[in-house]
């Protein structure tokens, strides 16, 4: 790892100031993705701005028909939160399947969502639940936030503060993990929300995406059988030593079926 | 150079580190607590697991500076000063839950966190799933699972003494 300066601000304003003053500075929360990347020297930040001392980024709370999760909420906190389990059980289940216990004790929702790894779990929930990303500057709809592999609508120096999840009528998540790395080969998050049925697919493509055909089928009939016959086009999906694009396309249908079954 | 102040196994130290110094490097190289191992260095194998403020974490994937002000427990901090082993260490010995022993410190630290967070008790399946973040290259999982199952009975006070492996 190359060396870097380290700052630990205690307010969003101070963190933003540090980030805007230095274009090569990067924020860090749990560091479960960033630190491995730095070890591989894939990244050379001049400074790391540790967000963990910022109280405004903490907390999980119910606000009317929304669940608001602060950027610093660790995966293990979300998985065990009574608020999350009561409002959106599928989200608690998803959080409990990220990495392993030790990774979940460090990794945060803000880090996962703003990193937008194609194999990350949270982006599928954010997109399918029609969540809103709250930053220090503005509110961004999930449909506008994710912009392909490791790319989001966040501007340099802009900080993700919280994610607001409208509470759905039903939601379910299923994924196929790579047996060695345990990263998602293909996953599906399905949700019956106020804005309609939404299906988000992660792991299979260069970024999380919505599956319109499945959304239509589930809106007409909410059952695993409704999506069983829908074939995902393999064009543009990831193909690598772990599985071809055709294999992942096949998994998309299987995972969507399982996700609907899990949602009940 | 930046300084980090942390309490390790009950003893508070202030140490000079670089920004990039990992928690495991601070423990092993600055504090000479070499019981915590580095296996993969990619947060997969779990040989480096320690407890930070009561939670098990991979110390190869945490900066020393991120542990400023934290309370850290390593494998060296488990036994009593008179040498009496922690029930989990005793169970690993009784059940022969180690072969080469390289993964053992991390296994023990993860196992203690797992048992402490599940006071209602863990089934064999839950123990196996709970060890997802720890790899044993000797593939000695079977006895590790047996040891954890036996240790949880003592840790939760359901038995006063460890069940012998011969039972």
Automatic annotation (TrEMBL), chain A:
InterPro entries: CO_DH_flav_C, CO_DH_flav_C_dom_sf, Diverse_Substr_Oxidored, FAD-bd_PCMH, FAD-bd_PCMH-like_sf, FAD-bd_PCMH_sub1, FAD-bd_PCMH_sub2, Mopterin_DH_FAD-bd. It holds the Pfam family FAD_binding_5. Keywords: FAD, Flavoprotein, Oxidoreductase. The keyword Flavoprotein applies. The keyword Metal-binding does not apply. Coiled coil: none annotated. SUPFAM superfamilies: CO dehydrogenase flavoprotein C-terminal domain-like, FAD-binding/transporter-associated domain-like. Residues 1-170 form the FAD-binding PCMH-type domain. It comes from the Bacteria. This is Xanthine dehydrogenase family protein subunit M.
UniProtKB/TrEMBL annotation, chain B:
This is (2Fe-2S)-binding protein. Keywords: 2Fe-2S, Iron, Iron-sulfur, Metal-binding, Oxidoreductase. Residues 2-78 form the 2Fe-2S ferredoxin-type domain. InterPro entries: 2Fe-2S-bd, 2Fe-2S-bd_dom_sf, 2Fe-2S_ferredoxin-like_sf, 2Fe-2S_ferredoxin-type, Beta-grasp_dom_sf, Diverse_Oxidoreductases. Pfam families: Fer2 (PF00111), Fer2_2 (PF01799). PANTHER family: OXIDOREDUCTASE WITH IRON-SULFUR SUBUNIT. It comes from the Bacteria.
